[in-house]
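RECORD TYPE: inverse folding
INPUT: structure tokens
STRUCTURE:
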């Protein structure tokens, strides 16, 4: 039976990049939420597939999403689809003529591209597939360089590169509407960044975080572990005003040893402001300052539209806060010297996340979002490890695998109520809101996993050496 869209059911097709797969659906949902729309996929929706059919969206909605997404490559008005070439033909012939007419005029030019997923076709095979579409009533001329309209034939050969079928599992045909913003990943690459550090966030993930947070023009966005400002760069690109804090004086002021290869010291203009200047968004830079995330420095008010951050995990950057384990002794009565500046001490991961959620509950505007990375030891992971707060609801939880035994999860939360005194009692009484202490040993688990891996490698080497003898 032919599969088709009726007159009342105009569908769109998203062609998605096949990286950061776990982040794609939350990103598209967040961008549609900015428009007051919901993600309404087809009944055969498969999240891991590179092709998504969406219902109930206008072309303007689709263009708005594509103007921001870095997870989707392109979007199309879907004219036909099917499991076989015969089903595709029936579907295309049943597509409403009035929806096609404007793009098939004699005075217009067009071209047809063929894309395959998980299989490479020879050029002659692509031409044959285009020729097989001769039943479509194109009246204009072909123009491969500057066509008025672009059409695409997609063939999906599944997700398993080890078992590629002879024929496609599914076929789509549609009119190109817009491309996504994948170019941002290249234009904002950390390799080209003026000021970088040891843990500067990847450009693609920075834009994904900004989209998950629904950052929009004129928002005020804050990063409490700002580092070299990669997240501020992404948020400013979408029109937000940005600010941040960090406990590292050298990073905030752009002094000290450089992180770039073959460069010993940072230059006089290597700082976060210069990074925004590099991308033409310096006017959206509010400021950054040296501050301890565990200490209250902001007035108690809803100040920020979004809080986006990548807290230190204790691996490449230490988790420190101001303070001392030594006993605090009172100075003599006749002491007239300067006040003591406390040294730093360990800042446990469980405390970092508890403080971060409490800060977000008090300083986010209603409906504002908190987006942050949570490192986990994969063999022990369960959803109960994700920190919760009475004033925040969990929107999404996406995994990025780091190694066989570790990963980090991108947590997105939204503020749903103002903090009250009863929330403090709820946090004490309800075990769901208790900080998970297992996060504090993440560093030890991380390095124990590396040690085990190295030991296995050494064992294999020893066995090979013994075989020689």
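DESIGNED SEQUENCE:
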């Amino acid at each position: 039976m032919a599969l088709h869209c009726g007159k009342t059911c105009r569908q769109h097709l998203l062609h998605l990049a096949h990286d950061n797969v776990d982040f794609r659906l939350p990103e598209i949902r967040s961008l549609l939420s900015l428009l007051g729309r919901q993600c309404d996929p087809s009944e055969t929706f498969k999240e891991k597939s590179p092709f998504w059919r969406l219902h109930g969206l206008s072309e303007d909605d689709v263009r708005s999403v594509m103007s921001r997404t870095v997870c989707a490559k392109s979007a199309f008005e879907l004219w036909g689809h099917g499991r076989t070439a015969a089903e595709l033909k029936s579907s295309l012939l049943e597509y409403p003529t009035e929806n096609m007419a404007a793009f098939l005029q004699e005075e217009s030019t067009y071209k047809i591209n063929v894309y395959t997923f998980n299989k490479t076709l020879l050029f002659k095979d692509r031409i044959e597939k285009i020729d097989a579409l001769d039943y479509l009533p194109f009246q204009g001329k072909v123009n491969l360089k500057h066509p008025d309209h672009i059409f695409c034939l997609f063939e999906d050969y599944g997700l398993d590169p080890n078992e590629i079928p002879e024929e496609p599992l599914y076929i789509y045909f549609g009119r190109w509407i817009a491309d996504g913003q994948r170019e941002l990943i290249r234009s904002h690459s950390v390799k080209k960044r003026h000021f970088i550090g040891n843990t500067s966030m990847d450009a693609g993930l920075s834009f994904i975080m900004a989209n998950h947070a629904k950052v929009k023009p004129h928002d005020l966005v804050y990063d409490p572990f700002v580092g070299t400002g990669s997240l501020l760069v992404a948020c400013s690109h979408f029109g937000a005003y940005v600010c941040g804090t960090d406990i590292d004086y050298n990073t905030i002021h752009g002094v000290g040893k450089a992180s770039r290869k073959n460069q010993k010291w940072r230059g006089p203009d290597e700082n976060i402001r210069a990074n925004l200047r590099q991308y033409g968004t310096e006017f959206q830079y509010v400021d950054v300052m040296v501050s301890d995330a565990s200490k209250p420095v902001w007035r108690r008010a809803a100040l920020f539209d979004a809080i986006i951050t990548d807290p230190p995990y204790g691996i490449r950057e230490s988790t420190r806060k101001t303070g001392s384990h030594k006993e605090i002794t009172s100075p003599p009565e006749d002491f007239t010297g300067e006040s003591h500046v406390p040294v730093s001490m360990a800042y446990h991961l469980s405390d970092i996340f508890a403080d971060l959620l409490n800060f977000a509950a008090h300083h986010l505007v209603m409906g504002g979002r908190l987006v942050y990375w949570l490192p986990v030891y994969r063999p022990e992971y369960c959803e109960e490890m994700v920190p919760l707060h009475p004033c925040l609801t969990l929107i999404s939880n996406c995994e990025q695998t780091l190694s066989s035994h570790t990963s980090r999860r991108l947590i997105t939360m939204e503020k749903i109520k103002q903090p009250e005194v009863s929330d403090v009692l709820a946090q004490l009484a309800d075990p769901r809101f208790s900080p998970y202490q297992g996060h504090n040993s993440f560093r030890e688990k991380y390095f124990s996993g590396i040690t085990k891996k190295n030991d296995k490698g050494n064992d294999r080497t020893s066995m090979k050496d013994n075989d020689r003898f």
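NOTES: The chain is about 30% helix and 25% strand.
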